[in-house]
Each structure stands twice: as structure tokens, then as C-alpha cells.
Amino acid sequence: MTDAAAGDTPPERTAPARPDDRIPSVLRFSTELVAWVATPWVLAGHSWLLAALSLVVLIGLPAVLSTPGDKNSVLVAVPGWATILMVLAELGAAVVSSWLLWPVWAAVPVTLLAAAAVVTEQPRWRWLVSLD
């Protein structure tokens, strides 16, 4: 006779432990800083309103929207894939804005920083998706 036949319920599925993301966090935050500076700088040449809106999107949305378990306080809960998309938007904004704004010698390190962030973020992204 098995335990299931005896009426035992299977143990509840627990979420996997959050991966150590100290190094990915430093790379991600460094790239976000570039996005926060370069994107409004690029857009200000076209419209101050677009520049201000870019800051709302790049800083405001990730501050309000987060995946439960990823941050200590969650104002508006979103699934893990939404957090991943926000990170990709920040990284993309940093890369594109740096190439539009700065010379090659400055844009190449930003691109490499963003690429390193994408590579090191993979364990966190797998964890975020597993929470859905």
C-alpha cells in the first residue's frame, strides 16, 4: 500500500530558492544607470516630454511593478516574465542610447556591460520564470 493510497496528500510545491545575484545585480544596475542618463539625453533633442516620459518608464515602472519574491516590497505584482522584459528594455535602452549619443569608444563598453548583464542574469531569469 502506498502513502497516496492511505490518503496522504502530496507535499506542496515550494518555490526554488532565489539564486545569488550580487554580481548580476551590479552589472544590471550599472547598465540601468547608463540608460537613465543616456536615454533622456538622446530624447531631449527631440522632445523634453519624451525625455521625461523615458524616465517614468525606465525608473518608475520597475519601482512600482515587481515579481513577488524578487524584491522585499511589492507594490504591484507582475509575473516573472514581465520583470525580465523590463530588464531587457532597460538594457536595450542603454545600448541604443549610448550608440546614438556617444562615440564608439564609449558605446562599446556599454554594449559589453549589457551583454555581461544578460549572461549573468540567466539564473535569476530562470528563477523568475519558475515562479509563474
Automatic annotation (TrEMBL):
Keywords: Membrane, Transmembrane, Transmembrane helix. It comes from the Bacteria. The chain crosses the membrane at residues 33-61, 73-93, 99-119. Residues 1-20 are annotated as: Disordered. This is Uncharacterized protein.
